[in-house]
Structures are given as structure tokens and as C-alpha cells.
Amino acid sequence: MTFLLAGLFILLLSGFVAFFTGKSGRAAAFSAILGTLSCLVLSSGICLDSLINGRSFEFSFPLTLPFANFAIGIDPLSAFFLLPLLLLSSLCAIYGSEYMKSPSGGHDSRMSWFFFCLLVTGMTIVVIARNGVLFLIAWEIMALSSFFLVTYEHEKREVRKAGWIYLVASHVGVAFIFTVFAILGGDQGSLDFAGFQAVKSGTLTASLVFIFAVMGFGSKAGFIPLHIWLPEAHPVAPSHVSSLMSGIMIKLGIYGILRILTFLGAPPLWWGITFIVIGMSSGILGIAFALASHNIKRLLAYSSVENIGIISLGTGIGLAGISCDEPFIAILGFAGALLHVLNHCIFKGLLFLGAGTVLHETGTGDMDRLGGLMKKMPFTGACFMTGSASISGLPPFNGFVGEFLIFLAAFYGITSASLPLSLCSIVVIASLALIGGLAMACFSKAFGIVFLGEPRSDKTSHTADPGIPMLLPMIILSMLCLAVGFSGPTISAWLAGTVSQISGIEIPACRTGLKIASLPLLSITVLSSLLIIMGSFLYSLRKALPRIEMETKEPTWDCGYAKSVPRIQYTSSSFTSPVTGLFSTFLKTRFKRPATSETFPGNNSFSSETPDFWQEYIFTPIVGLFKKFSTFLIRSESGRIHVFILYIIITILTLLTWNFFR
Amino acid sequence: MIILLLTNFSLLASSRLDACIRIITFQGIIIAFLPILTVRETHIIFSYPPYLLALVILTVKGIVFPVLLKHTLRSVKVRREIEPFVGYGASIVIGVIAMTFSFWVCRQIPLHGTTLSASALPVAIFTVFCGLFMIVSRVKAITQAIGYIVFENGVYVFGSALLIEQSFLVEVGVIFDVFVMVFILGIMTFHINRAFDHINTAKLEKK
Amino acid sequence: MELFQMTQSSEIILKTHASFLAALLLAPVIPGIINRTKAFFAGRKGPPVLQLYHDLFKLLRKGVVYSSTTGWVFRAAPVVTLTASVGVLMLLPATGAAPALISFPGDLILFAYLFGVARFFTVTAALDTGSSFEGMGASREVQFAALGEPAFLIALAALASLSNRISLNGIFSELAVNSFSNLPVLLLVMTTILLVLLTENCRIPVDDPNTHLELTMIHEVMILDNSGPDLAYILYGSALKLWAFGTVLISIALPFKTGNYFCDSAAFLGGIFLLAVLVGTVESAMARFRLDKVPKMLITAAALSIIALSLTLR
Amino acid sequence: MILTLLILIPALAGIASFFVSSAFLRRSMLAGTAVLHCLLTAAAWVSAPEILLNGWLALDSAGLLFLSVSSILFLASSVYAVGYLGREHQQQQISEEGFIFTNTPESIFIACLQLFLSAMTLVCASQHFGLLWVGIEATSLASAPLIYFHRHQHSLEATWKYVLICSVGIGLALLGTLILTYSASMIEGEGLNLVLGQLLLNSADLQPQWLKVAFLFFLVGYGTKMGLAPLHTWIPAAYSEAPSLVALLSGALLNCAFLGILRIHQVCIAAGQSAFSCGLLVFFGLFSMAVAAFFIIGQKDYKRMLAYSSVEHMGILSLGIGLGGTAVFGSLLHLINHSLTKGMLFLAAGNILFVYKTRISSDVKGLLGRIPVTGALWVAGLFAITGAPPFGLFVSEFTIFKSAITQKHYLIAGLFLLLLAIIFAAMSYIMLNMAQGENSEPVKKESSFGIIPPVILFLLTLLLGLYIPPGLTDILNSVAFIFGGA
Predict the structure, then answer these.
(1) Residue D368 CB coordination number (10 Å)
(2) Does a structural domain hold residue C25?
(3) Range of the domain at C234
(4) Is residue C6 part of a domain?
(5) C4 occurs within a structural domain
(6) pLDDT above 60 for C5
(7) Chain B CB within 8 Å of residue A649 CB
(8) What is the ipTM of this complex?
(9) B113 touches chain D (CB under 8 A)
(10) What is the value of pTM for the model shown?
């Protein structure tokens, strides 16, 4: 615990150091890296201890604020979120140290580094906080510092807009979390988690807490339709920041919900169903929007929504499992969800870093202007491909393991005796399969369009792999993708403590359940290693073939069309148009069509962009309404002193009459 | 009391500013005699505070205000209140309504013996309302000043009607208040007059 | 709750390997049969049944031509595709008679996702060539896959809930029990799987493997630039894929086992050859759908499987 | 002795500075007064000051609390004033309309500042309702010339509104006082005077009906001065026209008016009428918040926006008091935090106005680039004033909200949160667009006089967000107990 505190302190300190360093962001970046790394090192021991042995530690000293104590603690749940958090943040710091030297970072990056450290500190405290007020404070610090990071380039109009949307979204979320803790706290003087008397399940209070928690934390996690800030904020943020935010910060929303669930006792069935519905809509629609977007970072943001959907599907089947009293299924579901949290943290971080590299080198995130980068930056390409494969849930990468567990839970659910559980499982299977297919489509596009084929514009003309500081984190993350993919059994065994905390099933049961679940994982590992061996054998066989060395280079077969130009290639939008066609109800894509009336049309342009459905048709109108009303009020306020005094008279008269008539 | 009522109504009705000033002077003089009446009621013959008070009020309300107001009036060269927000007939009607309201209000509240007279209270409240109404309904700054004075008279009547004992400080408060008010308003009108060429608060507004 | 049994008698292991190898060997026959059938309906003589073997060997002995646009993804793709198909075969009771090489709860998920791997590489390789035709094929491929995958998985789920097992082995061994009472379910599932089979293996009415108009092609157009050994790998891989789907279909169609290895294998082979004939017949009897009808067909398939699944719920 | 000094020193200094000629001496007198006042207040914390005029003047814990807040604010503003007057002197005044005007003579300005302080002290210390009333009247008189500092027509209008509206309010408050006396005088035997203590002692036999009426008049009267909607109308005008430090002081003034309401509320509680008064307070609180919220959304003028946010926070204060329970504690804490934060914001706004010469928020861009310190303060102030952690207002608002929930006033709590959210959205939109954005001009050097006071205020509110000194907690608790808190 002391180590952890020390790490926390160092982290905070490094932030302030970064604030006071020299004008060139170098020293600042260095201190940030140092801070995050040392915090990681110092806290990893306790985290692993608590993860593996399921132990938990507490520490607290009183603050003078009402309801508040500086109560922190590490238990499997916290540890599970804390480790990837610190890991990813140190990697992002390393990455950023090079990235921030880009021409885009014209202004000095010290502030940015300061807020970076603040963000990491805030997230850490959120995860380990054991007191409502402390949690809220840390939560808001996290939100605000990330806001400042997002609006790093606040000269641009769209950046400011995105920042504002993000700010308001998170603030509204906080309002709900406010309520959650206020209700949970009951009427005792402190909001320590230990002091929360367990709300009886099924009561109205429990349901209220649940609903508010889902709305509050969901707005951070990005449940549809509370997700609107994601596709706005991520494209404009510096890439290592958006990697951090999408990789771990939105997961803290999930963490919050899980943490609240531990206070609520046995869940009724409809909670599970709620989660499954949320998961279904977020997953499918999220990936659909991802398919429709051309900007690579916007695409990644939407795919985060999708992955959050998958996670909540897992949580949902877990909850349903508990309420239908099928502990094994519950364990599988939660384990799958948690594993996917970890995995998404890894590969989404990786993908954002990759996208950042592309942005950094070419200066554009518009996929339709990119292409053929694989030859220019092979390492980045390989890493991005790894990320894409794992986010599409392809074995043997890590993405598959988590989804597999959720699938497994669902299949067991179908074979289980209770009807509602089977129905839930059907939904889960169907949506997971659909999501998987669409994700495959989406990321084969993301990778293929950006890195393969011919360059679509001259933006890619002189680009190369970035320096070590940017490359190293990506490589490490790709390694992790494979490692987690192969060590599925071990890692799932580590989840026991966390799962038991969420599901309320005692640890030994979880251990046995996960051991059972780890057998298939083991055989998957065996099989995939087998296949890899075989693949390499086939490859070498191919090399050994007689006339293989007679390898000739020709241009791509163009079916006799002589004057083929790169622009003729399929673009991201044309690639996905068959799929996106299926979701046209939500994807209101706007086309700027050329008017080709004459026989030989001249130069023309065709462009399409897909606005966010909910922002377009729900939130913007509401905001507009408020604006109108307010302007109306201000106009109608005459400013005549007579009227003002009339107000006073009317007030006193009404009050008197009211008083006497009462 | 009845006289007081009538003064109020005439105030509501009159359009000429100097007439208004004359009326409030008259009102002030009447009010000045209230403490003495109170003395009569409470049978404490030789207690000087009431007389002193009467004297002060006589000087302030009967002499200082009129002079000040006349001065301002002269300095801003307006004779009559033009274009009020509420016409004079309507003002009378509203006055009647206000009067009934104030009587109704007084019926709601339990009174006890020490009051000056049953009618004093409603009249006081009515005066207050008249004052407020003048402030709201008249355009000229100076008329509003007059209205404010009426308002203060009402408050004062109210006080002296209700509070027989040791209400000295309160009266001092009133005088202090009104005095300062007229002072301020005088300055104000002065400036307003300089800023524009006639006293019209409505024109002060932006846009 | 089934644990997977490590302890198998050496004899079973032998049989398993035998049938696995048999599958690997016999797979290329299927396309031959299909073509033969089509030729028969067209009134031609048609290529010999073993034509594909011949092609494969010829291709393996050829050199390769690469587009200058392509990179290592393009070179890796054929290997990966083939490997994935082999992997899938390992999960299946390859000739229906003996259990699969590797079997564990939920292996049917891996089954679906291995094909996913293959598809991912095929598609990216297609995009790697930078040709708009291949891009077109790729885009269609992913669309159909996105719809076909749920249909297939739900169909398997129906079987799982029918047989109360969630490993392919378990399912197929359990189906024999009271399969008559479940006939409607089985029929629905089989229809779905047949449709998915046609889609996944790019057969008419979804795709026309041997047209020469690239605009209409899906799978073939993606491998337009492959040549030599790569093409051989791809062809062999797709033969294996066809065999795999066929296996699933037939194991459902003939759930009964005599217990005698050879009889069962024979029955199974007969079944799968019949299936080939059936596919050939379909190809000769029907025309290609308009592209926008294919999604509808797949959604129908999914709907059918969902109906089947809901029938099995108790 | 302390109390006497507290009241007399500013008064005398004020009167003196009418006649002092040298600007330097005057300004140093101002600063000196402020410092002395602060020191004396601190002394009052240590040793309870004496009681004057047989109990009419005494500094109970509530008074002490309010006094300290005002004193700190005054210190900050007087330091700021030194710089402000300096730069107002140098440059020719050009208003937005671009016509030239002259400022009030500095002597009058400074004198009024000090008189204002003494009046405020009087209000905080007075235990007698008449005296309280006189004090509040005095504050408005002393502050009128301050608001009329820039002598051009808009500030004239603002002052006119301020004076007229406030005096009407004051008049009503006077009526209230009279009625209160009457309700007290109904007690048989020797009628008692308006000293708070005695009223509380035999509050039982106050005539309830009259007491209620009295409360109504107090509420409307002092509410006008405090700026509860719909009586708030003078605030936007006055705040937007007056120089920023004056606006800041009127912040303190609002508190004093609030104290007036609290006193009568205290009597009501003692007389067992708390349900009545609490209900009204809650209603006015929510109503003010709502009005403020909707006037902030479309607001073009950032000083007006700040004014409306003051209205909102006054609403929160009265809401907290009305809710009772722990909310009272929260509300008092909120009073302190709000005064500090709003003070900082007004000073920052003053700097902005000085640099950009406009009050239209859409014409202000890239503060962070042009005047970094003020810009940073502006952004920080935004988050502080909208109650985001780790700032003090978060703690107080959360306390109020929590107690609303604990008392099962779910509707009130919901409205409270909703309005807060709306206000946050609106203010952040306006203020961030001012702070951020591209900026062509080079960085401008900011005068330390203009920077130090707001920075200090900011640090204070940040501190209160993280750590509340136990002594403060104790006094807050005792005050909360006085005003019906738990």
C-alpha cells in the first residue's frame, strides 16, 4: 500500500515538475514517462498479489470535507483495472514524448503533459477510491484534465465544439453519479464504501441506483445514445491521449458500474436484460457507424462504442446467469467481459497509436486519401494489422479469447434449463456473431484501405516508420495481443477474485468454474500453435517448390483497361457501401452528388459523410430549443424600470393574497 | 384619515407637477399631526417625544421636500406630466381597487386595542400602494420621486398608527430614509437632466 | 457439463487420424463431381472427376507472377487460408465415423472464426492488389460473411440446444437420439446450413465460380491476381472448406451410426458425394441472384435458424 | 473595543479621504483600512468582541462569519483598486459607444468604498432589526456612487435602477420591520424592543399571523437587495455597468441582505413558523436558479452572465437554508465559496474588459494566448463556479444535494441538478469560447495588482475544496445550528 501511495505521489509530482520544466517539452515528457513508469512499477506488486491471491488492502485517513475520507484500497476488481491503466499510460507517455514534437504541437506542450499526469492520477484514484466524495473528485479531475488534453489544439473551431460536447456529456454523467452516491450513502455522515448498507435487491431504491449508475457511467463508457462525445472528441485529441482515453478511460465507466453492482446485492433479471439490450444496440450500431466513417480515428472511436457493447453483453449474460441461478454461466459471462476489457485496452490502444502514427506522418486521417503505406512504414503496418486482426476477434489473437468466453457462456445458457436465460443467450449469440462479422468487415477495410494497395493521394509521398519512442509502444502492445491470445488459460485463472467480487459467488467456486472454462482455452492455444507450425511448414514447402524462384513482377491485372490510376481503387466508402446499406435507417449518409446532365461531364466531385444519428436528430434539436427559449426571454425583457418595480409589487401582492387565502 | 385618502386620490388624478408637490406638502403636514393624536389616545399628556417628532416631520415633510422638489422642478423645466403609462381615469379606478384590497387585507389580520383607529391601517397600506403605483405608472423621474415620498408617508402612517410605544427609532429611520432619497433623486434628476434634456426614465433604457 | 476426454483408446485415435487424412485426400473430388454434374445437365462430357488434383499439381510446378503493388500480406494470404481450412477439418468428425481430432466445448465457435481468419486474409490480400475489381469482390465478400456468420452460428446453436452439447463431437454423437421427433428442427437447420454453404463456397445462386465477367464475381475476383502455388493453395483450401461444410451438413442428415467404422465412413462418403451432386444440380437449375437479393436470402436463412432454435427451447 | 474599531475605522477613514488631496495617501489609506479591518476581524475570531448599546450591537458567530467574508473580499478589492485606479487614471475612458466620459473623482470613490465597508460591518454586527435595516440602507447609499463610477449614460441608468429598485425594496423591508414590531408589541406587559435575543426568548407569544406577514415583507424587501428572482432585476444592469471591483463588493452586499433574511428566518424558526418560511425560501431558491439558468444560456455580455450566475447562487443559498438539515451547513459553506470564486471571476472580468475594451463575449477570443494568467483564472473560475471538483463549490453543492436526497425531496434534488447542468453547459460554452480560440496579438504583460488578488481568492476556494479548517467547520456548525440546521 505504501508503495502504491508513493507511486501516486510521484505521479502527481511528475505532473507539477512537467509544469515547471523548460520551454521545450522534452523534460516535461521525460518526467511524465518517469512518473507513470515508476507508479506502474511501484503498484504492480500489490496489484498482482491481490489479483492472484484474491486479497484486498485498505488504507484511510480522514479529510475535513463533509462526507469525505481519503479512503483507498486495492481489491481484485481495482487491481484488474489498475494494471492495464498504468501500463497503457506509461506506453502512451513514451509514445507522446515523440508525438508531441510534431508540427501540429505548435504551442508548448508543458500544460499538456501536466494534464496528462493529472489524468493518470485521477484515473488511478478513481479505481482505488473507497469513498464517494473522493471518487467523485477524482472522477471530475479525470474528466477535466482529459478535456484539456482533448482541446490541446483549441484554435480550431471543431476542436472547441468537440471539447464542449465532451465536457457537457461527462458533466451530465457526473450529475447521475452524484445521485447514485447520494442515495447509496443513506443518512450516515460519511460516504465510505464500507459504510454503504447493502441495498436490498428488488427494492425501488436498488433499481433507481442501478438506472442512474447505468446512465451516469454509461455516458462515460459510451453506451448508445450517450456515446455522442466519443466520435467528436477522439479525432481531435492528440493520438496518445485518445489512445489512453479510449483504451482505459471509458473502461472506468464499466468499472464504476461493476463497483456499484457490488453494493446492490442479487440483481433481478431485468438488469441483465437491460445490459444485453444496451450491448446489442451499442455493439451493432457502433460498428455500423464505424463502417460508415472515413476518418480513421472517428472509425476507431465508434468501434470503441462497439467493444463497450460486447463488454456489456458479457456483463448482461453474467447478471442474467446470477438471477437465473446458473453460477457457472455467470462466471463465464463476467470473465469474458473482464477479459474483453483487458483486450480492448490493449488493441484499441495499439490501433489509436497506429492511427496516430499515420496522422503524424501523412498529416491526414481521411482514409480515402491514404493507401499503400505498408511499403513505406512496414512496422507500423504490421502492428496495425495485428491490432485489426485482434479487434476482429480472430484467433489466435487476444480479441478472440474474450469473445469466446462470452460465446461459451451464451451457448451454455442455451443448453441451460431456464427459459429466460436461453432467450438472452440467443440474443447474445446472434448479436455477437453479427458484430464479429461487421467488425471483420470494418477492420479489413481500415487496414486494407490505409496500408495496402496504391497511394490514393500524394500525402503519403515521403513517409517512413517513426522513431523508436513511437514504435516501441506499438510493438509492445502487439506482442501483448499475441501473448494474451496464447496465455488465455492462465489469465482467465487470474480473474477468479474479480469475478467473485462482481458476481458475489465465493472465490473457490469461481476458481473451479474458470478452471473448467480454461480447458477449451487451452485447447485453442494448442490448436493455434499447431496451425502456426503447419502454416510455417506450408510456407517453407512453398519455398521448396521447383520453379518458385521464377518470380516475375507485373502490374496488377486490370482486365485490359489500359490507363489504370490509383484513384480507381475501391475507397473506404465504396468498400463498405453494401454493408452500410443494411443500416440505412440509422446511417443517414449525406451525399454531395455531381450533377451530370450533359453527355460529357467535366471535372466533378462526389462526397458523402455520415453524421451521428443521435446528435443530429435528438441532442442538437434540444439544445437549439433551449437557446431559442432563452433568447426569447432576453429579448422580451424590456429593461424598463417601471416593469421591474411592477415585478416587486406583483410579488408582494401575490404572496399576501396567497398567505391570506391559505 | 379621510383627508389622507382624498389626498391620495387627488394625487393620482393630478397631472400638473407643482400641484402634486402642493398635495404632498399638505399630506406631510397632516401626517405630522398624527403623533399628537396618538398622544391623545394614550393619555400621556406631557411626554415630549411625540411633539418633537411632530415638529421634525413638519419641518421635513412640510418644508424641506417641497423646497427641494420645487428646486429640481425649476432646474429641469417641466410643468406637467405628459404621456403617463396609465391614464388618470384608470389610475383612479386602480386606486379604488387598491383601497378595497387594503381594507380586505386589514380584515384578515387580528388587531388589538392599541391602534390609533380602525381606519388608520388600511389607509396607510393604501397610501403605500398609491406611492408604488405612482412610481410604476408615471414616466417622469420627478414624479417617481414624489411617488416614493408618498410611499414613505404610507410607511410612516403605518408605523405611527400601529406602534404606540418607542417607535422613535423607526420614525428616525423613515426621515433619514426619505431625506436621503430626495437628496439622491435630486442629484439624479440633475444628472439625468444634464445627460438628456428632459427627465424621462423610459428613455434611459438601452436599445 | 462435459469435460473433454483426453483419454482415448489408441484405436480411436488411429481411426480419427485415418479419417482426417481421408478428408484431406478426398476433398478435391467434390468440385470435380459438381462440375461433372453441371456438365451432365448441360449435355457436355465435362472434365474428369479428378481434374482438380491434376490442376493442383500443375500449378504447384509453375512459377508465380506477383503484382508490383502487392506486399507480404498478398503472399501470406494463401498459406493462411489453407492452414485455416485444415484447422477447421481438425475440429470435425472428418468422415463422420470417428470423433474429431480436437474437440472441446465451444469448438463450433472456433470453427466459425477460423473461416473468419481465412476471410480476413483473403480480403486484405485482395485489397493489397489495389485493383478495383478485387476491392469490389472483397466488399461483397465481407457483406455476405457478416450476414452468413450469424445464420451459421445460430443454426449450430439450435443443434447445441437440441443435443444439449456444445462441442461438434458431442452434438453429432447426440443427434442420433430421438432425431425423428426433432425432424422439423433438423430440416430447418439443414436448409440454413445449405444456404450458408452455397454462400461461403461462392456457388450459384450467390456467386458464379467460372464466369469470366469480373463484375459479377465475388470469390474468384479476389484471387484474380494469384498464380502458381498460391493459386493451388487457395483452390485446395476452398475444396477443404467445401468438404468441411459438407461434413456438417451430412453429419446432421445421417445422424445414425452403425458403430462399424467402415460402414459409417462409406455412408458418409456417399452422403457427401450426393451433396456434391445436389450442389451441381442447383447450379445447373438456377441462375445467379441479383446481388441485392443475396442479403435477403441470408437474412431468411438466419430467420429460419432462429425459428429452429426457438423450437428447440424447452 | 474591537467592534467599535471595526465600525469606526472605515467610517472615519472614509470621511477623512474626502479631504485628503494626494492620491498616493488616499490609496494607501484605503489599503491600510482594509488590512486593519482584516486584522481586527481575525482578532474577533480569537476573542469574542464586546457588546455595544445594550445588546443592539454584538457579533455572534453568524455575524462573524459574514463579516469575515466581506472583510476578505474588501481586502482583495482594495488591493485591486489601487492598480485599477492607477490605470483608470492613465487612460482616456472610451465606452463601447465610443463617446468619452470622465470618472467620478477618486476621492469620492475611495471614501464611498470605506463607508460602504463600515456599513457592511454594521449590518453584520447589528442584533436589532431597526439597526439592521439602517445598516442595509446605508450600504445601498454608499454603493450608489460606486456604481456610478464611469459617468456615462449607461452607468447612470444602472445606478438609477439600483437606487430606485433597492429603495422600494428597502421600504418594504421597513414595513416588515414595523409589522414585526407590531406582532411583538401584542405581547402583554411592557413591550419589548426589536433586539434579536429578546425576540427569540419570547418568540412563543409572537402573533403568528403578523409574523408571517412580516416575513413576507422581509423576504421581498431584502430579497430585492439580495437578488432573488423576480426581484433580481437591478443586478444585471448594475454589475455590467459598475467597475468590476464594485461588482465584487456588491457580492458582499448580497450576503448582507441574505443575513437580513436569515435573521427573520431565525425568528420564524423560534416561533415555530419554520415550515412557512422554509417553503418560501425553497421556492424562491429554485425559481431564481431557473430564471438565472435561462437568462445565462443566450447571454451575450459576459459581465451580465456573471451577474445572473450570482442570482443563481443566491438561489442556491436560500434553497439550502430552506431545506434545513445538513443543507444549512452546505449553504453557509456555499456562501463563502461563492463570494470568493465570484470575486475572482469579477476581477478577471475586469482585466479582460481592460484589455479587450468590450463586454460582448463573442468579441473576446484567445484569452489564454493573449493574457495567459487571466485566461487561466477565467477557465479555472468557470469550473469553480459551476461546482466542479476539486473546488469548494462542489463540496457545498454536493452537501445541499445530499441532504435533499436524505430528506427524500427527490423532485427538488432533481430540479437542482438539472438546473446546475444547464447552467454548466451554458457558461462553459460562453466562457471557453472566450478563453480558447486563435489569438493574433502578442502576449500582454499583466499588472501584478490585477493578478495577485484574484489568484489569492482562487487559491482560497481551491483550498476550501480540498481541506476545510476544523475551526471553520466548528463555526459553520454553530451558525448552521442557529439557522435551523442540524
Answers:
(1) 21
(2) no
(3) 30-312
(4) no
(5) no
(6) no
(7) yes
(8) 0.86
(9) no
(10) 0.89
